[in-house]
Each structure stands twice: as C-alpha cells, then as structure tokens.
Amino acid sequence: MRIINEDIKAGKYKRAYLLYGEEDYLKKQYKDKLKEAITLGDTMNYGYFEGKGIDVNSLIEMSETMPFFADYRLVVVENSGFFKGANERMAEYVEKIPESTVMVFVESEVDKRGKLYKRVKEKGHECEMTVQTPAVLEKWILGILGRGGKRITKEAIDYFLSISGSDMTNIYGELEKLICYCMDKEAIDVADIKEITTEQISAKIFDMIDALGYKNQKRTLDIYYDLINTKEPPMRILFMLTRQFNIMLQVKELKEQGMGQKDIASRLSMQPFIVGKAMKQTGNFKGSTLRVAIHEAVDMEKNIKSGNMDEKMGVELLLIKYSI
Fold it and tell me: What is the pLDDT of residues 47-73, one digit of tens each?
C-alpha cells in the first residue's frame, strides 16, 4: 500500500497493479484512489471490466488505445478469475502493456504459482489486502471517531470490535451509525455500542459456544435457529464454529504454557477482549474435547459437501452432541 501511495504522490505509475485478498474495504479504497489520481474524474480515459468470461480481445483493445489529452489510460479488471487458472494470453500481454496505460486487477483469490501473478509482480506491483490486526483497526477507528469529534474508551473499543468483527466495510458502517447516534455526546461508551451496533455472526458464535460449554442445549439450538432465520448459511455457521473451536484450543494451550491474556492476544493477533472471552470458555472444555470437535467438524463439512448429509441437519447434530 505504501508503494501505491508513493506512485500516486509522484504521478508516475507502473503498467499493472494487482489488489487482492480478503479485505474488500482496502481493495475498494485503493482502486478508487488510483482511479481518482489517474483519471481526475474524466471517464474518457477509463475502462472497466468485471466478472468471469471477460472478452480478452476487448480488454486488450481498450488497453492499446492511446489516452485523449492525458498521460494515462486506466483499465480496471475486477473479479475476473484470471489469477486462479492458467491465462497465458494475459500473462504475455502484461509485458506489452503500453507505457500510457495502467491496468489494475482487483481479485479475491490468486494463485501465486501462476504465470500471470508472477508477471504482474515482476512488471508492476502486487498488494495483498489482508484482514488488519487489532492494533491497526483500533488506530483506524480512533481516527474516524476523532474526525467525527468523538472519543472512546479502550474498554468500549474492545467491546465494539468483539461484536462488529474485523471487516472494515462493516466497521465503517457501524461507526457512522454510532457517530450519528451519539450526536450530542463527546464520548462513546459500551452502553451506546450495545444500543446501536449490529451484532455480527462471530459474536453470536461466542454465545453459542458459551451455551455449549454449560451444556445448555436449548440455548445452543435457539441461537442456531436464530442464525438460520436471519439467512445465515449453515456451512458458514459450521466454519465459524470450527474456527472458534480452533481459537479456543490455541488459547488453552498458550494459557497452559503460562501466557497471559495480553501476550496471547499479541501472539494470535486478536483483540484482548476476544481472547479474554475465549480464556473463560476454555474452562468448560478439555483440550482433547476441542481437538475431537475440530476433527468432527471438518468431517461433517466433507459429508455435507459430498451430499451424504443435509447441511442444516449436520450442523444441528454436531451442536446436539456437544451440548449434552
């Protein structure tokens, strides 16, 4: 990201940029930054291609067109899937992109072994937009709130992140709601967050794990069906459940090694508030139980994907087993 910012500041651009990874907010932010800097709002020298099945001939034709009364033509290619399979033609063309054209690829997934990825890395710049660490998110959140004239305590920001998740697009939307809700207040507290912030699936998974740990089967299944009723796919719930079991196992093992909450949070790049909740939850589970649960969740995923088990029923059976 630093290199892109430096290129924008200098007004000198590489032939190709690849923005990829899980964090959609950052991908959009840097795509828009490049677009604004290169086109200056003039769509005459801007081309956009999206989705699988892009006509490579049209893409190359657009890229070969000289810009009108400008230094560069910008061509954005988004969610093409070019970087997941072999694409010899695009890999060859990256070397031939005119100096007057800047091509920006925006993708969710890439194969770093592929020729196209290697060619963009060699001839241009690739930038992975990953989920940001708690420290980075906190700094970013404080900046947004500061510009909105608001303050927030460490306790409140930890709680906010524990229910909003780490997706920056979601966080930004929730912060806008908070700022508007607290219009007459200078400081945002936990009560404000509880009142206005939408709880994400990760927070509900915490509640489900709590219920599992206390062998409260009714509460466990109530939360599960609440998630189903809000259109959460059972496979996503299974993924989040497996992820939380894995986090708990790591936290439990590090805790047994004598590490405290802050050190564990640093080691796992997680919010201390989340680690604290996981530390409490591990008291209700043996390490061996967590290991078996992880393996059984993975096996359940395989059975569902192979068609041997209905996804809604499969997740329910897993929850029933561990809440008895």
Answer: 999 998 899 999 999 999 999 988 999
> The pTM is what?
0.69
Q: What is the pLDDT of residues 263-303, one digit of tens each?
A: 998 888 777 777 888 888 888 889 999 999 999 999 999 99
SS3 per residue for the chain? CHHHHHHHHHCCCCCEEEEECCCHHHHHHHHHHHHHHHHCCCHHHEEEEECCCCCHHHHHHHHHCCCCCCCCEEEEEECCCCCCCCCHHHHHHHCCCCCCEEEEEEECCCCCCCHHHHHHHHHCEEEECCCCCHHHHHHHHHHHHHHCCCEECHHHHHHHHHHHCCCHHHHHHHHHHHHHHCCCCCEECHHHHHHHCCCCHHHHHHHHHHHHHCCCHHHHHHHHHHHHHCCCCHHHHHHHHHHHHHHHHHHHHHHHCCCCHHHHHHHHCCCHHHHHHHHHHHCCCCHHHHHHHHHHHHHHHHHHHCCCCCHHHHHHHHHHHHCC
